Amino acid sequence: MIQLQIEGLSKSFGDRVLFRDLSLGVSEGDRIGFIAKNGTGKTTLLNIIAGVESYDTGVITFRNDIQVGYLSQNPSYPVDMTVIQACFTTDTEMTRTIREYELAMAHGDAGRMEQLVEAMDRLNAWDYESRVKQILSQLKIVDFDQPISRLSGGQLKRVALANVLIAEPDLLILDEPTNHLDLEMTEWLESFLSRSRVSLLMVTHDRYFLDRVCNRIVEIDARALYSYKGNYSYYLEKRQERIEARNAEIDRANNLLRTELEWMRRQPQARGTKAKYRIDAFYDLQEKARREKNVENVTLAVKSSYIGSKIFEINNLCKRFGDIKIVEDLTYTFARYEKLGIVGNNGTGKSTFIKMLIGELSPDSGTIDVGETVRFGYYRQDGIQFDDKKKVIDAVRDIAEEISLGNGSKLSASQFLQHFLFTPDTQHNYIYKLSGGEKRRLYLCTVLMSNPNFLVLDEPTNDLDIVTLNILEDYLRNFKGCVIVVSHDRYFMDKVVDHIWAFEGDAQIKDFPGNYTDYRAWKEVQEAEEKAKEPERKICRESEKKTKQNTDKRKLSFKERREFEELDTLIPQLEAEKKELESALSSGALSIDDIQSKATRLGDLIAEIDEKSMRWLELSEWI
Q1: Which residues have C-beta within 8 Å of that of residue 433, sequence separation ≥ 6?
Q2: 143, pLDDT greater than 50
Q3: Of 163, 326, 502, 599, which residue is the least packed, with the fewest Cβ within 10 Å?
Q4: What is the pTM of this model?
């Protein structure tokens, strides 16, 4: 069953055409991963489908009564809201019904409340808040009353994610859902979506995520749309076949064009006898030959500065913020040409360690001794601010006019930019016209072209498209220097690093030889072994508890035994009364005064049951 149909969609910004006559259908059960280079309109397309942005021409049709959930790339909420309040702001049938019911209660509108009770029952809305808290807890958000203004970027993304998931939409639209999520949360989301039956349309650069969640890949290339039934691995295979066929067609067209060009250039008097169809065919052929060939596996081996044998030495490094320990007595000697990947949950100190290494943050104690020949290239998680009124090419030329490749070879600033997918036309655009991903790509260029011999990359994959990631991975594999990468992109880490530091919190750092997949496999084995030992530990704990109870055991007094017997009779009576009150409150037949009085009694009754039950448990331990 078709849930969404897009026909002939076009969108331009001034003279810049993002896409033209784009058509796409999303059926029930589709899990579509949307791939395109930065600046080709991925986010714009999702915003258009979600109704956030307008479009020039075309038709977008949703199935009747379909519920759509949308996670934007940069979600925002009023800063004066709390986390739990933000989860009631989504415009869904459930949240609208809850808000109407609460409004009717506030105004004492018994008639309206009776009308809404049926809707609340049908939507299972009575326990909505508890379900919100449950999914927030799974996403490691436990302070529900925390103001939105105090959340980090990752926490805010998780609140927004909880908002769209709790609504259980028929179609889920996600724009870079893994950005700002740590590895644990990324794997949780991957598992959640794999189990869910929701249809999915998403943009993400996480290639393992695409491979394990999606069953269809859609790509926009040169303003044309290509669809592949399969996951990311299948898409790569079929895309390569498409590119090879297209390049072969261009080569054939160029060869034939030379022959036809000679025919077209014959003396003017022969032109009148030429067949019109052949002249028309010549211009079609010329158009084909002018198409740009896809150049795959571009190798960019920029010369790095000389790096000596001494890189950096860490001795007894300590750092904490209040009661939170980041590192404690860390000692390590970094080797020449080492490529280290750093992983860990948000808040475990990854970026803090990087800032201490770079010299932007001082340790509490201990030293970091950096070698004299080390020349850092630091790609910050928060990026840098460009002068938006400058052109792209001028921002790069401010750093260097030429980039040395070694052996006397050089690249001009313009040629270097082309390796990172900035066409000559784009290079002369003003920076304010670039998309967020294009600005990140420009920032990456400015870091790499300064000829560093030690690259420190803090979350470099955020907002970069897959094509750029492939170029960066190839660059780092051939880089003649040292690399430290902090990233939640598992595919990227697997291709670049040779060992892992896992920040596990409380200053615990595990040095693991191998890439991220190796580390994750080892960790799963460790977790399975721990789980297998848990029943034995439980038996030991129970045995210790019984031993302690037997040691400390005393007899109940006559008064306590009498109290225990009374509680044994009283608690079931209170439970029965509670059940009757709950039934009456959900019947919809009560007046507003009865509702208020019974709700008050129910609250008192629950508190009394809890108190009596705790006392019963306390006394039962001594029987």
Answers
A1: 16
A2: yes
A3: 599
A4: 0.69
